[in-house]
Write a structure and sequence with these properties.
The protein is of the alpha+beta class. The chain has four helices and 22 strands.
């Protein structure tokens, strides 16, 4: 593990082996810096992972971090110690190369396959630097990503002080925003409570309960960005009531007269008159009724 220590205007590179290393002003500290408290900070190196724990609050980037709480240190972050001492974890070339080569689509496939990547990528991510999920990298692969400890969230945190649905990260255009989902404990960005949707920048630290997440914006190549442009609206045409709409490229042609067949189809059909009038039909019905009645009467007398 490679670190740079900036002290009195000089940069001193330090290579650390795996294990715990103390930093302070004591004679037994592994990294001795005059003027610092004894065993001010303990660095724990485990392969590519670096975590710290200090006996007093330290400033990581622009945020004051509490004492006696382990914290993961990401490549590119700086620890500001007393007496203007800065401990910097530089971004190595391998990390830059991984960031350039790992696309958002590939990261989304790993997410769906339940294989969360430990490396950085072009996709925006939230890295847990403090809490039960320390070291876990959560890719922001969707437009809306919900955070909480419930089963129906996109980023599940194993923190009982976090609500089931605690916060939501929104991806709008090329920007990311975070909003609180009306929780009691709220959400803090760089120590400031979020009252409304707040835009996120690379390096911002989100605090949910006892969990802290570091936001890392994705670095996308220009050709990967998809821009959808609206189709131009056709020009509006105003036509007078007594005017005829004609093509501007061809002159108006006179309307042809309908042919004989078309004229016969469009003409109204003649109304068909009934053969007998209503009065004639009534008289015929009465005569038929009397005839039937007479036949029935004669049959009765014949018996």
């Amino acid at each position: 593990m490679h670190l740079d220590i900036v002290w009195s205007g000089e940069v001193t590179p330090v290579d650390l082996a795996d294990g715990a290393i103390t930093v302070g002003g004591g004679p037994k500290d592994d990294i001795h810096l005059d003027g610092l408290p004894f065993k001010l900070m303990t660095l724990v190196v485990d392969g590519p992972r670096l975590s710290i724990k200090a006996i007093r609050p330290l400033r990581v980037g622009n945020q004051l971090f509490p004492a006696h709480v382990p914290r993961l240190v990401m490549p590119g972050e700086e620890l500001k110690l007393p007496n203007d001492v800065v401990v910097r974890r530089p971004m190595d070339e391998a990390s830059r190369e991984r960031r350039r080569n790992k696309s958002t689509d590939f990261l989304a496939k790993e997410l769906l396959a339940n294989e969360l990547p430990e490396l950085e990528s072009r996709a925006a991510t939230l890295t847990c630097v403090t809490g039960a999920d320390e070291g876990h990298v959560f890719p922001l692969a969707f437009l809306d990503v919900t955070l909480g400890r419930g089963d129906d969230v996109d980023v599940r945190l194993h923190d009982r002080s976090v609500s089931r649905k605690h916060a939501r990260v929104l991806h709008r255009g090329l920007s990311f925003f975070v909003e609180d989902l009306a929780t009691t404990n709220g959400i803090f960005v760089n120590g400031q409570r979020v009252r409304s949707a707040k835009q996120l920048n690379t390096g911002d630290v989100l605090e949910l309960g006892h969990t802290m997440l570091r936001f890392e914006d994705g670095e996308r190549a220009p050709e990967e960005r998809t821009v959808i442009e609206k189709m131009p609206e056709p020009p509006s045409v105003v036509v007078a009531e007594d005017a005829q709409l004609t093509s501007p490229e061809s002159p108006a042609t006179p309307t042809a007269e309908p042919s004989g067949l078309q004229a016969s189809i469009t003409e109204p059909l003649p109304v068909k008159k009934p053969r007998f009038s209503f009065a004639e039909l009534t008289v015929a019905a009465l005569a038929l009724l009397l005839m039937v009645s007479g036949i029935v009467t004669a049959a009765l007398f014949a018996r």
